[in-house]
Amino acid sequence: MNQPLRRGDAADVGQVALIGLFVTALATAQVTASKLIAFAIPLSLPHTGDTLVLPGAALAYALTFFASDCYSELYGRKAATVVVNVGFAMNLVVLALVWSTISAPVAGNSPVQASTFATVLGASTNVVAGSLLAYVVSQNWDVFVFHRLREYTRGEALWVRNIGSTATSQAIDTVIFVTVAFAIAPAVFGTGVALPTPAILALVVGQYVFKLLVALVDTPFVYAAVSLVGEDEHQHAAEA
User: Is residue 22 over pLDDT 90?
Assistant: First the structure.
C-alpha cells in the first residue's frame, strides 16, 4: 500500500523540484539565447522606443533567479551557492552535448538537415561567451545580495530581498551578456559583426525591463513556494 508523503518527504520533493526548475530553465536559456524577439509596449522608453527587443532566453533565464531565490530562502547561502556553481558546470555539459550532436554525421533519412540543426541549436561563440560570463557573475551576486538583505531585514520582508537581489543581479547579467555577446566577443573572436551602440542600448533596456517585470510578478510565487515547502527548511536557512 502506498504511504502518504510525510512533511519531510514533501520538503525533499520541494528541494528537488527547485533544483530541477533551476537546471531546466538554465538549459533552456542556453539553447534559446541566439534568437532575438520583440514585443510592442504601450509606452516609449529610452533607447528602445515602443518595442522591447530581447533574447529568446529572457524568460527562461529569469526563472533561474526565481528558483535560486526560493532555494536561498529555504536552504541558506552555502547551499544556494553550490547549486549556482554546479549549474554553471552543467551549462558546459549542455553545450558539449549540443556541439557533439552538431558535429556527428547526419543520417540520410534525418527529418532535420545538419545545417538547419546547427543554425537553430548551435549557439555562437559570442552568445556562449556572454551567457557564461554573465551567469557566473550575476547568479553569485544574486545569492550574496539576497542573504545580505536577509540580515538587514532580520529575516522579515521576503519581498525586499527577492526584488532587491534580482533587480541588481539582473542588471549585472543584462549588461555583461549584451555587451559581451553582441559587442566585445565579435571584435575579439572575429565571429560576426558587432552591433552598433544604439542597438546594444536597446537590447540592454529591453531585456532589463522584461526581467524586472518578471521579478515583480514572481514575488507572490516565491512566498507560495517557501510556504509550500515548509517552515523547517525556512528555519534551517536562517541558521546556514
Answer: yes
